[in-house]
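Lecture notes, unit on protein representations.

Consider one protein chain, 199 amino acids long.
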Amino acid sequence: MLLAGLTIAFAAYAIIRWVRVVQEDGWKDRGTNALRATVWTGLTLLAANTVITGATSSGGGGSGQSMTRAVLDAPGGQALVFALGLVLFGVALQQVRKGTDGGLTDELATLGLEERHAARWLGRVGYIGRALAYGAVTGFVMHAAWTHDASGAVGGLDHALGEFQQRPYGQALLLAVTLGFAAFGLFRLVEARYSQDVT
């Protein structure tokens, strides 16, 4: 039931992004919204397929590994996977940049000074937590490209955090990412309530 609710939420956000593609005037904004819309449409389809078929992440590892290996074995595939790692690394850096100024709190004009300060810290912790998560996935994707080993890139965030859990510093990393995600969720709830535009 929770996953079904998430599927509906993903679909709603994807629709908003596609509407923005049409509404925006500048090509840069249209491109950004189109990229987000594509990502969230993919997440919607993935979640919907999981709800319908009852598939679990453990059951999808083989196909994901095969897909990654097929890309690596294709002409220029290693460079393509490496480029994906660079993109993920860039996303991680973007999350860090947003975290330094507390995210989008400049739009929360209706909040008082203390509330804005609290929201800014929620944004900082949340974006840094997301940066750690993207960084974890980036590491495994880069390793797959460097070693030409598809098994290291399978599973996405859950796989990356599961692997890190086995390391001496794994528990601390998982705690930081968990607190970051929780803070980011609260921050987005504040935005949804008070901001004119949540991106």
